[in-house]
Known about the structure:
This protein has 23 helices and no strands. Helices cover 75% and strands 0% of the residues.
Amino acid sequence: MNQSRLLNSVFLATALLFAAALAAPEPAMAQRSERGKAEKEEAPYPNATRKEPVIRANSRIQKKVQDMFDAYGEDDMTKVESIAQELLGNAKAGDYPQAMANRMMAEVSNERDDLATAIDYLNKAIASEAMANEQHFQSMLLLAQWYGFEEREDEALAVMERFFDESGSTNPEYRMIRAQSLYRLERYDEAAAAINEVLAEVADANPNWRKLLLAVYVEAEKLPEAIEVGKQLLAVDPNDKPLLVNMASMYLDLDQTEQAVALLEDAKARGIFTAEEDYERLYRVYYNMEGQEAKTIAIINEGLDKGILKPGHQVYNLLGQSYYFSDQIEPAISAWTKAVEFASDGRTALNLARVYYNEERFPEAKTAIQKALQQGLENPGDGHVTLGNIELYGLRNKAAAAAAYREALKHPGSHQEQAQKGLAAASR
């Protein structure tokens, strides 16, 4: 059950108790004394500074209030609204029944996704000062949450400050609502202090409270502190995949690459990382590390072999680069050839053509550069110069080379000088 619904349930239960009390006959003095003693001992807000209001209503109005509560319990919001508006329109209904009517109209408006109107009704119910303490304070907690949903955090925090002043509550859950408002207001130091205070007092704290603390530290750019909180959370749930990913990201932001890799590798070994984005995250970390081409190659090939990584330009292009920079030319060519088939432009094919050229595999280089020009290059002149060089220096075809250089000269760019020199050489 979410917190908002829980507050409503508590409110309704309390409201029904007071409805029953209004309908009950006046007890004897001794009975009132004993009951008052028991209620004081069981009071949910024993340290409240707000005095309990005197609640009165005649039997006819009380029946209306009871009917309204019953309709709410049956989710009959149309009937709730009808009775509530009748009570609000009756100047003689009394403060408490009208407070309840405003409170129920807040629920009706909320059910209709009109939270702004719901907030207005709830504020009226609270401002009446007619509700019993438990109803009053639960309504304040709900109001703070609704303000938060509307991103009216200054007002949410003000309500929470008033709640603590009047109720004297030290409930850790309610203190965390206040901490969340501080977090949303970017008052990170205050939020962290409030959360840490709660965590120090509560042995079996809700894990979400530490997650909020982690978020506070991240937003405050206190990553070492955030990592320590993350470690505490992982000690409780070592399989929390989103947390593992966030922890790895924080390690990388602190240039603690080895720790990030260790975390990701461990998660993969334990079967937590099994999705495409998991393998992609790991091979990219290795790719950006110096001297880790073999690891990059291994992760990519494992992902491809298992069908986790989908064949595509990105994966084959990075695989080709990793092979190339580890002096494995043939596998690099194989990977880049596959990458070309998925490419949206001719850059990879141009790179492949230059590798073939350096390897003196000129017919394959020509095929690759023609593919690059067909797929499209940002500067086609570069491609035509490369084709001219292949024809002139590789295939020894001066006529074809001259034609390529002339085509290159049609396009502006830094390649112009090379094209002029190439054309001169092909014309000799």
